[in-house]
Amino acid sequence: MLKVAPHSAPIEDVIRAMHVNLGVGLTEKEAREKILRFGENSIKRSTRFRMLKIVFAQLASPLVFILLIAGGATIFLEEYLDSIVISVALLVNVVVGTFQEGRASKVFEALANSQEQTATLLRDRNKVVIPAKEVVPGDIVYLEGGKAVPADLRLIEAENLSINESALTGEWIATPKEITESPVKAPINEQKNMAWKGTIVSEGFGSGIVVATGLYTQIGQIASDTEEIREQSTPLQKSVSHLARFLMIAIGVATISILVLGLSRGEPLSEMILIAIAVAVAAMPTGLPAAVTVVLAVAMESILKKGGLVKNLLAAETLGSTTVILTDKTGTLTEGKMSLAGLYTARSITAHDNSIDHTDNRELLTAAILVSDAFFEKKEEGVIVHGRPIEKAIVSAGLEAGISQIDLFAHGYERKDFLQFESKRRFSASLNTYKEERRLFFSGSPELLLDLSDHCYVAGASRKLDNDTREEFLSVQRAESAQGHRFTAVAYRLERSDRVPDDVRSNAYPKGLVFLGLLSFSDQIRPDVSKQIQDAKNAGMRVVMVTGDHPETAYSIASEVGIAKEGDTPITGRDVEDMEDDELFDAVHSNTIFSRMLPKQKLRLARVLRSRGDVVSMTGDGVNDAPALVSADIGIAVGSGTDVAKEAADLIILKNTFSTITAAIKEGRRAVDNLRKIVAYLLSTSFSEIIVIGGALAVGAPLPLLPSQILWANLIEEGLMTFPFAFEPAQRDVMTRPPNKKVHGKSASLVLTSEIRKIMIIVTAITGVILLGLFFWMRSIGTPIEEIRTVMFVALSLDSIFFALSFKNLSEPLWKINILNNKWLFGALSVSIALLMIAITFPPLKTLLSLSTLTGFEVMLLIGLGLTNLVTIEVAKHLVRKN
Hints:
Elements: H1 11-17, H2 28-38, H3 50-59, H4 62-76, H5 80-113, E1 118-123, E2 126-131, E3 140-144, E4 152-164, H6 166-169, E5 175-176, E6 194-195, E7 200-212, H7 218-226, H8 235-264, H9 269-283, H10 288-305, E8 308-310, H11 313-320, E9 324-327, E10 339-344, H12 346-351, H13 359-370, E11 375-379, E12 382-386, H14 389-400, H15 405-410, E13 415-422, E14 427-434, E15 437-444, H16 446-452, E16 453-458, E17 461-464, H17 467-481, E18 486-495, H18 502-505, E19 513-522, H19 529-538, E20 542-546, H20 551-561, E21 571-572, H21 573-577, H22 581-588, E22 593-595, H23 599-611, E23 616-620, H24 626-631, E24 634-638, H25 643-648, E25 651-653, H26 658-698, H27 707-722, H28 754-780, H29 785-807, H30 823-841, H31 843-849, H32 856-882
Parallel strand pairs: 9-20, 9-23, 16-19, 20-22, 21-22, 23-24, 24-25
Antiparallel strand pairs: 1-2, 1-3, 3-7, 4-5, 4-6, 4-7, 8-25, 10-19, 11-12, 13-14, 14-15, 15-18, 16-17, 18-19
Helix pairs in contact: 3-5, 4-5, 4-9, 5-10, 5-27, 8-9, 9-26, 9-27, 10-26, 11-26, 13-14, 17-20, 26-27, 26-28, 26-29, 27-29, 27-30, 28-29, 28-32, 29-30, 29-32, 30-31
């Protein structure tokens, strides 16, 4: 895109080569021409052979691999009927799996697209925000702390600018940036005047000229070289893969043992291979791969619809295991839409007038607009203000009062320099011309700026700030904070230079300020948050507010939403600094409000709780919240937060509401519950078959079931019944049972809990013994083997139907379960019964499966057997619940 090396060329040469006008930026016409020429600023995944890859992925499954071996063996032995059935089983498994993988891929694409990044840049002399994919070479892009770099930039401005380039270089420590030229052969991690696409601004602000977009960027070239972006499996998928590999090994050992045992007894090799195939097919839950994919797709899609982007499914289940939620206030408990509620200067407090009409109040608002980093742009739908909530409220109030930041900058209040707000500094600063002076305006913590001020503004002049006036400001803040209002303060001092002084930049607190006044803001509590917090408490979690707000504000909101209980006293960040770890742990379990908390204090709080066994979820939105989000078991970033916070988080709540957290908890528990039902259902039916076949072989009896019959029962009957479990509604106790603290254990335990294992053992043992007893009884009365196999085939098929009804809910008895609340299960039940009827009545299928006609007595016997097994499962569930 650029003939000169941008990092080594003087900035003037880069400006000239890119045809950039620094004061205007690109026009919309130029931008449209360039996007047609260079394409979108995105790195798209290749879709070539995607369907073929998904098909091969299905064939690579350990469970499908066993079917492939079985199919090859039956062809070798010229058992073509079994080969046909196995081939049909393979085809159905691959088709279902491919369909569901495609469905899941669409969900995951929606997850990625839901977090579309934006870029702030200069177009036609105006500062605008556009989708990052529309950025083109020659654009002038503004950078600020917490935002992602949208394209490769040659920096033209860098104020305390550091960029985390770990996505490109692997180095986590942020790189300080400057605008001077770098050596020609400098590697990218030493090109200090460049900002790379996909990296994240850690602090400071700056601007740069776009020199490369899309595949022409450094990260785009890497993507082109590797050509393929591999999708990662979620921990839940890994858990099931572990289970599949375990089953494969166990089945391999069992089949080889049976083969060796039979050959040692002098049995024919061909017959023993068929028996080994039967055992392998009986034990293998062929419907498991497709079922897991369905569970994942349904759960991720459901959470996304509720406004949550979960980076991996296990994060939602870990949320369900949370014992403490550390939640911020603004944007999570409240709507995050700040509006200016009042202006308070020394003179207006005395006059009891907090409106914009008061002369001093108007001066206060003007100063607040000058120091704000928010900005607005005019669009067809109206004026849109961009920035942090409080800054947006300030600029919006100014526009309503006829005070525009752009007009101020252009008419005597030009901004010379700017220092961005940082949590550890607790203020931002703007150096502006002010009539014949230069004033350095400060906006930030009221307590801090009051402490740093020795004068206050009164009627266009400054006067000594006495204790009475200081107390009046504090009194106003306390009174309004008790009503849930939030405050910021504005102060200033005179300067002579054109830059913010180094002592201010180095976080040394400036002295001798003139205190202009206080601005109060209101933020409405979300209407559903009280219920959601109560739901979290009912689920066994403790909810604690951790905020940077004033103690009175925090207490007011916490009380209203149900976090605070009577007698709670807000603990401040200063209190936390004076506490030992044991004291802090005790404090968080006896108090529910932490106010005036700095990010490093939030980090310590999370670490102390985790070190003592709590499972911690924490919300955050700022750059400096990232370490705390990483330190927590679950980091939760709000959708309006910084890219740094989102990168560090496990769950992103797109609608900035606490209800998304509880919805993700519920959906995560539901997904794992449903997967447990599927695994319990499949393994119980499969292991029952193992007992029947193994018991018959142990006494030298013929096979109770043929491989083709086992495949039909496993795939057609069981397979149809497992799929609907993914759509099972959440159980009634899903948000009332205590959290499971075992979140750091082996992944397999996520599925095979002790309760599931107990139910499987009881059901498998009793059902297997009943079926084996039926087999031996029918042999003892001289029933032909073809007829016995038909009865055993129908018995297993009926078991799979009755099992599905009981496994629909593992914590409640069948008579308390609403059987009709899952239309997919009801439909699968109907189809499964219909297919069973076809199998035992349709002559060609009867021949294929080697089935005979059932007598009336056998039909009644089978119905009774099915009901007996249904009672068996209910007894097993009752025993497990009782224990």
